[in-house]
Amino acid sequence: MPLNxxxxxxDRIRDAGVxxxxxGGLLAAWGLAHFDQLPNYLRLLSTLPFFCSVPMACVEDxxxxxxxxxxxxxxxxxFLLAPFVVAVGALIWYLVDPSAKA
Length: 102
What we know:
This protein is mainly α and 102 residues long. It has helices spanning 7-33, 40-45, 48-57, 59-63, 71-96. The model has no long low-confidence stretch (mean pLDDT 87).
């Protein structure tokens, strides 16, 4: 069953995803520049906005879900799961050892 998203809404989601991708990339670059000063969970968490932006920028894949086969369907599912995995990983790392630095 395809998502019933209008073209206007699709464009807004994609534009918001691209903007979030740029901001997330800047935040990840900042985290990389301050890599020695940040604990591990914050290093991981600095990439979260970028991982959230990828499915938004690829909204057309989810709109035409039936047309995705094999590798492309797996990639679309991975894009949806990545932000949750990063967030849960950062939370677990924080709970286990909040001051850990590699």
